[in-house]
Design a protein that fits this description.
about 25% strand; Rossmann fold; 11 helices; alpha/beta; about 375 residues; NAD(P)-bd_dom_sf
Length: about 375
């Protein structure tokens, strides 16, 4: 049995706890959190050993692996502490708020031969996996454009700050929401060669952005658009979408389905026809042993456990792959800050170019 501990018992930590606790190859031996109330409940009803100090837990328990689900700013130091105790690590996304630290931890995990994974669960959604398969067999020809989107109702009014919408704690909408579609873009197309036109705009949050828009270029004529807003209550829950245009067709995918339009006159993938084809995630997803939130959450933890069990170092969601996403987010921040500096020195508005109603409104506010 693989001895596992869960670190951080918020929403995601409790979700991971319930999933991994039912895994047939895992013995959940300990948990660590700062909340004594939560720890007392788990100790009483789940019979698991509890800790408020990570170092003490690592010294006291003979762990094979940990699952880290703490606020983002704690990921870096906690991952390092666990790697230095030769423990395999699953870390919730985003990987690290500091790309230099992320690079050091990636190297440390590889040097120590430890299994490492980051919780980008969309790579375990059947619809997004089908997109990957279709791209790799060239089903829509040469890809020319991709649009990656994420919307949802997280910050809907000015209110007190939480760790999620503080830049130094959770990284804001960029690291919490935009990380997901960016990670899918990395999976499908690798690193962009450049980003431009980045807008990181505050709507309700005081310390971080609530919406992000940007253009990405991947080389060979492939361009991308990123559109993310976590202050959009027209969506009941987080919704991530990918739309891809190619010379032989088009793909649209979200959590529920994968829609594919294929032009006639080209060899069709098996089970596909010219015109529109629709496959639902329910028919694209393998069964899991335990269901909470969605099959992908169980599938990603089983994937992590099986890599430890069979000592397989390859990992679709390794620290190295998550570091790509961190680096794209850093590129967006740098591009946005450059644009902000330019806006602080606007060109003189001449009589031939009078301010618009929107510019007058912005100046008055």
């Amino acid at each position: 049995m693989i001895k596992v501990a869960v670190i951080g018992l918020g929403k995601m930590g409790l979700s991971h706890h319930s999933i991994v606790n039912m895994h047939p190859d895992v013995e959940l031996v300990a948990v660590c959190d700062s909340s004594r109330f939560v720890l007392d409940m788990l100790e009483k009803y789940a019979g698991v050993r509890t800790y408020t100090n990570l170092g003490k837990m690592l010294e006291s328990e003979a762990l094979d692996a940990v699952i880290i689900a703490t606020p983002s700013k704690l990921h870096g130091p906690m991952v390092r502490q666990c790697l230095e105790h030769s423990v395999h690590v699953f870390c919730e996304k985003p990987f690290c708020l500091d790309t230099e630290e992320g690079g050091q931890l990636t190297a440390l995990a590889e040097q120590n031969g430890l299994i490492n994974q980051v919780g980008y669960h969309y790579r375990f959604v059947g619809a997004f996996q089908e997109v990957k398969r279709l791209l790799e067999i060239g089903a829509i020809g040469t890809v020319t454009h991709v649009k990656a989107e994420a919307y949802g109702p997280v910050v809907l009014r000015p209110s007190g700050a939480s760790w999620r919408n503080q830049r130094s704690e959770g990284g804001g909408c960029l690291y919490d929401y935009a990380a997901h579609p960016i990670n899918l873009l990395n999976w499908y197309f690798g690193m962009p060669s450049m980003v431009s036109g980045t807008v990181m705009n505050k709507i309700f949050s005081a310390d971080s952005e609530d919406e992000i828009y940007a253009t990405l270029r991947f080389g060979k004529g492939l361009s991308g658009q990123l559109s993310v807003n976590w202050s959009d209550e027209s969506y009941r829950r987080m919704t991530t979408k990918i739309t891809i245009a190619g010379t032989q067709g088009k793909i649209y995918a979200d959590r529920q389905e994968c829609q594919v339009y294929l032009r006639d006159g080209k060899k069709m993938p098996a089970d596909y026809l010219p015109g529109w084809n629709v496959s639902y995630t329910t028919e694209l997803t393998s069964d899991v042993w335990f269901y909470v939130r969605g099959e992908e959450y169980s599938a990603q933890l089983d994937y992590f456990v099986q890599r430890i069990k069979f000592r397989q170092s390859d990992n679709v969601n390794s620290f190295a792959s998550a570091l790509q996403t961190d680096r794209v987010m850093q590129m967006l921040i740098v591009d946005s800050e450059q644009k902000s500096r330019e806006l602080l020195n606007p060109r003189v508005v001449t009589e031939q170019n009078p301010p618009s109603w929107w510019q007058r409104l912005a100046r008055a506010s």
